[in-house]
Amino acid sequence: MIIEIIATSVEEAILAEKYGANRIELIHAFTDGGLSPSLELAKEVCNSVSIPVNVMVRPHANGFVYSTADFHKIDAEIDYLAENTKANAIVFGSLDEGGNINHGDLIRVIKRINGRLGFTFHRAIDVSGDPLKAFREIQGYGDSITNVLSSGGKNTAYQGIDVLAAMKDCQVINGAELLPGSGINPLNAAEIAYKTQARQLHIGTGVRLNNMLDPELFQQLLDINYDGLE
Asked: How far is Cα 105 from Cα 65, in angstroms, rounded to an integer?
């Protein structure tokens, strides 16, 4: 099981790796669902850990519809991350005014990445009109989109577990892989992993105590025998 942990600073990233994380998602503004961190921070975090670092590319918290001006920032962030950091992937998502996947934006981002970085489509999918339909559409991009982070259209992955399982069922070979996230913790991780058959989990508050990464919660999460789940 790949355990991806949200980090907002160099210190958190280092602790997450120390405690057993397999991958970092670096963000700014936890309470806004994650925004782009500073590019300098992204570079420093990537240089401070040996595990992969996926970096949020989201210029504002006002939904997931982006203007031409927004895309000037998005393009610049992608170029910087690809050319000046050891980032593993970007984390990005875009919808149109009707709440559908914005395929024009996705094609633009994929062309901008040009094979230089991986690409996780984030929880914009969960506020789309039909998350399962959106997941199927994203499968059409093959491995140009690496992962889809989703809670199944609900507030938490546990609440959306049936939709997540349906997403996993329609995942195609060499298509974007399901990454369940939101509200996952040591108490529900096993059930979510079992019912969705996901090979990776995205965790933020579930390993935090008083807003700080907690080694005991990490250990509880890592002690689960994911390989034994059937």
From this structure: 9
Q: Which residue has the higher pLDDT, 34 or 19?
A: 19
Q: Using one digit for the tens of pLDDT, what is the confidence trace for 23-56? A: 999 999 888 888 999 999 999 999 999 999 999 9
User: Whole-angstrom Cα distance, residue 12 to residue 27?
Assistant: 11
Contact criterion met (CB below 8 Å) for 75 and 112: yes
Provide the 3-class DSSP secondary structure of residue 143.
helix
Q: Which two tokens stand for residue 78?
A: 């992608």
Give the pLDDT confidence of 142-160 residue by residue, as tens digits: 999 999 999 999 999 999 9
State the burial class of residue 35 (Cβ atoms within 10 Å of its Cβ: 0-12, 13-18, 19+).
Answer: middle
- Helix residue ranges per DSSP H, the chain: 10-19, 39-48, 68-84, 103-113, 131-139, 161-169, 189-196, 215-222
CA angle 106, 173, 122 (to 5 degrees): 35
Asked if 8 and 28 touch (Cβ cutoff 8 Å), the reply is yes
Which residues, 6 or more positions from 38, have their beta carbon under 8 angstroms from its beta carbon?
Answer: 28
Give the three-class secondary structure for 113.
helix
Tokens standing for 190? 């096993």
Q: Which fold has domain 2-228?
A: TIM Barrel (3.20.20)
Look up residue 31 and give its DSSP letter.
G
Q: What is the pTM of this model?
A: 0.96
Bridge partners, 26 (sequence order): 7, 55
Q: What span, in angstroms and rounded, lies between the C-alpha atoms of 192 and 161?
A: 7
